[in-house]
Fold:
Amino acid sequence: MTSFLVVCKKELYDHLGSKRFLLLFALILGLSFFSAYSAADSVRNQGTAVFLDIFTSSSSFVYIMFMFGPLIGLALGFDAINRERNYGSLSVLLSQPMFRDSIINGKFLAGVSALSLVAVSTVGMMTGIAIPLLGFGPTPDQIVRIVFFTLITILYLSVWLAIGILFSTITKKITTSMIASVSTWFVSAMLMTTIAMILANLIIPTYSTYGGYGMSRTGDDITVYLGDQVLTGDEANDFMDRLEQQNDLQKTLCMISPSLLYQDSALSILSNNGWYSTGVVYYDFAPPEYDMFVNWPHMTTLAAVLIACFALSYIIFLRQEIRVGN
Structure:
């Protein structure tokens, strides 16, 4: 336990003093600062706005964490192991009276601690700036939602830390783990929705075959317009069933992306009779009985991804052969 804490303190000190961490932290703080002023101005112009809208309206804070949060998580993890191996310091460290698991556990806990500082400070800054600008603060229920939003943000950033450590463990070169980490972030944050749509169209082809569709309803009768074709009766119902299956498949494929899972979970937590998510790619108005944990499967999936990535890194690291000077 003592060696574990020693590694954790040393790594946390390195993180908080590194230019890489400080630059990314400053970037997120700066974006959050401008987002707070922009969101407060937008909220003031809405007669029915609530305090939680500062996180979701205008230049969305959720989008800032969705897009840039993974970068700081990956920055703390992509060279956590292979850097020590390349510099030969890992074998020196293991020559000390400590177990291997103390090293990887200490590195992971130090990274989570640094990311928790990022999440708590940025959410706290957003709240602190918005209260005097709006002239009112969050209600007790909204405070609970902000706390859970902060926790889900820490979980999201920790997922990317675990992904970075995994690539650092399975690759020998730092550049390789960096490219793999950034590529994973790029696909997850920017391409996953498009990839899911293309795959869903290929597996269950519908309107993509015709380049688009239109629909009209008269009572229980549905008419679908596909270019020059007009579908009625059973053909129209079959088309709509296939379209629904395609949308369900697209949502399922999107759940592979930690970024989309986080966005969905965060928006569902922050919704207060406003926008909420019924799926990874669709939003609607929240009903009065709306539960902020309606997307608990997404949150559970995020936690499962975190555990899986770290567990795999843990097993691989304990089985790796590490020699002196390696």
Observations:
- Residues 2-172+293-319 form one domain.
- Residues 100-134 form the longest helix (35 residues).
- DSSP finds eleven helices and five strands in the chain.
- Strands lie at 214-218, 221-226, 229-231, 275-279, 282-285.
